[in-house]
UniProtKB/TrEMBL annotation:
Species this chain originates from: Acer saccharum
Annotated protein name in UniProt: SLC26A/SulP transporter domain-containing protein
Family matches, as InterPro entries: S04_transporter_CS, SLC26A/SulP_dom, SLC26A/SulP_fam
Cell inner membrane found in the keyword field: no
Keyword terms: Membrane, Transmembrane, Transmembrane helix
Keyword Membrane found: yes
Domain of life per record: Eukaryota
Location, primary (coarse class): membrane
UniProt GO molecular function: secondary active sulfate transmembrane transporter activity
Length: 349
């Protein structure tokens, strides 16, 4: 009897082992069949189009599936992604209008003298500062996602524009050409900001920690104060607040020599890429410098606006969508460049 039971157990074990082997073989066959018949991976163009759709369309997947059944629902979903006012506007109460009106009047009374002063920093006539404080805020109110961000001309961007553009064109010798360059730089800055948002580069906002935001705000305050010392002290010659700056290059020479090869490789790669895409095929003697200034201004303007917006968002307890912020600021600067406005962004003050 004992031998019969052991033989039965051994037969059952062999059957179980055979079943496991058969299951493994079938799973391997299914996996091989899936690999052979798997769909092709999406192309680069399909990924870019998908990222743009995710940026513009509403984020609710269930609602998106229901609305994609009709062309009308898809168009409305697109508009809701592009204009956040369609989301929160339905819940807007008339009781809030009085407070919003008072806030708007207060902000307008403060922005008029500020805009005139910031236009002076940008080496522009006062009316251009007023234009910048009027047109971009109207567009941002429709497309922006921050509730407390005040849009208009700011000191940091105004000084940056004047310091970079006056190296190319003298605002005193030829003010018309200087204004044309300012509006062209604003146009390119809007393009860069819009493209950043379309390609979903808003995740870079997550790298702006609280320490970075506080440091940027403190640095901007110091730079503004130093720039105003020239007029306060009535200094007619070139103002050089830091006399030790000429001694910094010799001190950094040892470290720079180690990094020189990496800099050469990076510069050669950028030159090769620009030649591939025919970056300099556009005509115009100042186009390259204008695009470079536009890129720098776009990044600085986004950094300031997102720093202020994230500060308010963390205090009020809501999420700031970096992608929509980039799209909104890019579009408002594009329109602003066509209406005699220069680069606008969120203001510290």
């Amino acid at each position: 009897m004992g031998s019969l039971s052991t033989e039965a157990l051994s037969v059952e074990e062999q059957q179980q082992q055979q079943q496991q082997v058969d299951m493994e073989d079938s799973s391997r066959a299914e996996r091989a069949q899936w690999l052979l018949n798997s769909p092709d991976p999406p192309s680069l163009w399909q990924e870019l189009v998908g990222s743009i759709r995710e940026t513009l369309f509403h984020g609710n997947k269930k609602e998106k599936k229901k609305k994609q059944t009709s062309s009308r629902g898809g168009a409305f979903s697109f508009l809701k992604g592009l204009f956040p006012i369609l989301n929160w506007g339905r819940n807007y109460k008339a009781s809030k209008f009085k407070s919003d009106l008072m806030a708007g009047l207060t902000l307008a009374s403060l922005s008029i003298p500020q805009s005139i002063g910031y236009a002076n920093l940008a080496k522009l006539d006062p009316q251009y500062g007023l234009y910048t404080s009027f047109v971009p805020p109207l567009i941002y109110a429709l497309m922006g996602s921050s509730r407390e961000l005040a849009i208009g001309p700011v000191a940091v961007v105004s000084m940056l524009l004047s310091s970079l553009i006056q190296k190319v064109e003298d605002p005193v010798a030829d003010p018309i050409a200087y204004r044309k360059l300012v509006f062209t730089v604003t146009f390119f800055a809007g393009i860069f900001q819009f493209v950043f948002g379309m390609f979903r580069l808003g995740f870079l906002v997550d790298f702006l920690s609280h320490a970075v935001i506080v440091g940027f705000m403190a640095g901007a305050a110091i730079v503004i104060g130093l720039q105003q010392l020239k007029g306060l002290l009535v200094v007619s010659s070139e103002f050089r607040p830091w006399l030790f700056i000429p001694y910094l290059p010799p001190c950094c020479k040892v470290y720079w020599e180690k990094k020189q090869k990496a800099v050469l490789v990076a510069s050669n790669c950028s030159t090769y890429i620009s030649n591939i895409v025919n970056f300099y095929s556009f005509k115009g003697p100042l186009l390259g410098q204008t695009v470079k200034i536009g890129l720098i201004t776009a990044i600085v303007a986004l950094t300031e606006a997102i720093a202020v917006g994230r500060s308010f968002a963390s205090i009020k307890g809501y999420h700031l969508d970096g992608n929509k912020e980039m799209v909104a600021m890019g579009f408002m600067n594009l329109v602003g460049s066509l209406t005699s406005c220069y680069v606008a962004t969120g203001s510290f003050s």
